[in-house]
Amino acid sequence: MSRPHRETEAAGRVCGRHSGCRNPGTCRVSRRLCDHPSPLPSALEFCAERLEAGCGSGPLDLRDRLLIVPTRHAGRRLREELARRAAARGSAVIPGPLTTPGGLCRPPESAQTAPRSVTAAVWADLLRETRGNGVQALFPRGGNDREADPASDLALAERIQRLREELDEEDSSIAHLAEMLAERPGEGPRWRDLLRLEELYRERLAGLGFTDPCDSRRAFRADPALPEGVERICVLCVPDPLPAAISVLERFAQKVPVEIWVHAPEDLAPGFDAWGRPDPDFWTTRTLPFDGTSVHATADTGDQVTELREALLRRKPDTEPPLIGVPDREVGRMLSAELESAGVEAYDPAGRPLRHHALYRLLDHLVSLLRDGSCGSVARFLRHPRTLGWLESRIEGFDDEAFLRQLDDCRDRHLVTDREALRERAGAMEDGSLLRRAVEETESLIGRLEGGDFPDALAGWLEEVYRTRAWSRSRAEDRLLAEAARAVLEALDEVRAAPGARWREAAGAGTLLLHRLRDEAVYEERDPRALDLLGWLELPWEPSARLWLSGMHEGAVPASVIGDPFLPDGLREEAGFRDNAFRYARDVYLLESLLRSREGAHVSFFLSRSDASGEPLKPSRLLFHCTDEALPDRTRQLFSAPPPMHAGAPFSVPWHLQPPDPAGHPLECLYVTDFRAYLESPLCFYFRRVLDMEPLDESRMQMDARAFGSIAHGALEQMGRDRSVCDSTDESELAAFLESAAGRLMRDRYGRRWPAPLAVQWESLRRRLRQAARVQARERRAGWRIAEVERDAELELGGFSVRGRIDRIDRHETTGALRVLDYKTTDRVTPPARVHLARWRGDAPACAHVEVMDRGSPRSYRWLDLQLPLYLLMTDAQEAPVQCGYFVLPKATSETEVLLWEDLDAGLAASARTCAEAIAGRIRRGEYTPLKPPAHGEDWDPLFVRRDPSEVCAAPGGGEASS
């Protein structure tokens, strides 16, 4: 049985330019409000009952009525509810036309109406050509001198077209604003420039055989076609109809009755205008019925989402889930991801942004490659899973792991900065190299895209990419991919029609394609078990008893326009457009309707003090529409700093790295440098040496310490092998040789085009080598002669062959004494003893302990490095004394020197041997604890999420993960 309703003639204050019908004598507009005891029904129940009234036992025939609902979701819910009610009566529904205010203003599709890609391309070209040329008021700084960038041109084009669309929604135009502001300094010239550009834009579209979409809609509104058979129009609970839609309704009202259904009881009738829009004077001072509601304030958005998730998971399975509102779409996105990770499927009627789909990311990577050709763009494209699958289908024996390793090695070793450099490096590799084949396939693809019709070439390539993929309509991800693919193909058809040479080039066409797709949404089929995450305007159409409103922040609720360069809020108010005051009134009304339909007791508000990036958030003004008595407590509650959800609880990671069992990765040998790595961090040694893992920094544009040292070592090695050079005492000759040798090594490794940071490093290396030449000449004059360079040495320790490569061995011409030298290209000079030894610390392994005479007394020290003592053991020269040390080439070149470890004797060497044997035994047994970070472990921070390794990583082989 339907509830009674009150019908009144259109009356009351009207917001905006439409203060009444153009022909009030023939215009038939009436308004219906809900009139029954509290609680207020939902908008869905109100409309369904009213539509159902009078149909009797027969079918509900809606063919004679045009129904207008606020959103697509509201239309879907209304159809479902009417069908459910008809089924309960044993009857049926004969549907009629149903649309939204935006759909009401949309003319029938026409091939003459320019698609979005065409309007964007025309505007982008026009703005580039005219900027600084006759439109100085709009572009006072000009801008034609800057390099053409399709993306930035399209962004500006989008802003201008969006302005035109906003004005069109307000049933206005640039011409109207230009006339209104003609005499206003500053604004008048700007709007005249916009009007001049708009006229040029229309001329260009007409020359292409197109009409502008805004002009098409305006022409349609001037003489709209009423759907055949419609005898009545019902505007169902639309609190914010577009003024453009009202323009259409005014014309329809001259032919058929128009009913405005307002979701409010009759005591609130003075708060609405003739079209059901809330009156700001009435609503902005309303006291809302907050009795029994609850407010949950959290420290940040992450805590808010976590609280919502945990509250949902605590719910009893047999209870009805709450209705969840997400006025803040960012909170909705985070909540959806959080729920899905907990196994709760969520559904967003607004769809998923296409830019978050893997297909869009693939296109984004490809277009970036076409646009800038940077090595980062190439690498991102090649690493995309669909690209790897495509390469596998094209290259026999393709192995993605081996290929990615080659790609990383090439990028890391050669600092490849762009596509051309990568092509050169890959071309120098052997024919069967996976990287070479992959680069060849990529270059072939680029040739196809750049050499022919871009839309056809891209569509053909996408078909290749997805051809081998198994499809099933039963899988949600496949249905979503099909929707994404459909959107891409439609956009490609539009791109094909775009005029202008640069939009036919691959880079420009690709940029236009991404621009067209960026704001597209793809819609999933709703699972009946899914939890709906509804937007603000959709909430009144859900009758759920409990309501949770998340993201109750200023800017989200009420919605506001701030800082618009063309239509600031003051101008909107002056022009009679929907302004912030109107949106504020609308949202106060919507909140009151939500509260009244649940009598407040089952409504909870969730908000945060800051967003996910740490930016502060203000609570919504709507929450302060309480009674004066409740206001102080409400203010304290909303502005007091809430503690983090898990205050005092230690940080924990919900997952642990599970390294492979060391037993499956035995080492064949050890190197003298391994012992320092193990003593510093057994776990990082395991990752680097046993699992062959290396941190990778794709943004690196300069040599790391190891590469820098390698170039210096290479030049010094060449000097040591050339007897005519290394025996020279001429500093200039030595410097010239070292610089020439280092230059060849740099060019071999990094090519001839170096990024600026690498060029700076080259200058630093040249200075260091010049100082090394000075020291070398001095040492040669002192009788020291290079006897060997890069000598391979070996020692059996703890069941391993320990190998080393001694940089150089000098012999004195007179005494025959030997010295073993290791080149060090460090930032600061550190004596060898301090590199190898440090004061004893309780957490050091027992095997690292060593007694050292310090000022005549034995003191406890610990080994940090075993390199020079092991070199001493490996040299084992009986006929002459041996000293070990460093030939240091520091950043401060004046400190370049030969530093000997004078106190390194047989006793220290024996202690080092004992320590090395103990470490070798631990490695052989697969012991890689404690799980501590290296002293300078920034490279490993991403792996350990900047935490102690023991918190995020299990011990290799299942050992005790102590730190």
From TrEMBL:
Gene3D superfamilies registered for this protein in UniProt: 3.90.320.10
Annotated transmembrane regions: none
SUPFAM superfamilies named among the record's database cross-references: P-loop containing nucleoside triphosphate hydrolases
InterPro entries associated with the record: P-loop_NTPase (IPR027417), PDDEXK-like_dom_sf (IPR011604), PDDEXK_AddAB-type (IPR038726)
Domain PD-(D/E)XK endonuclease-like span(s) in chain numbering: 673-927
Superkingdom of origin organism: Bacteria
Pfam family, one: PDDEXK_1
Protein's name in the database: Double-strand break repair protein AddB
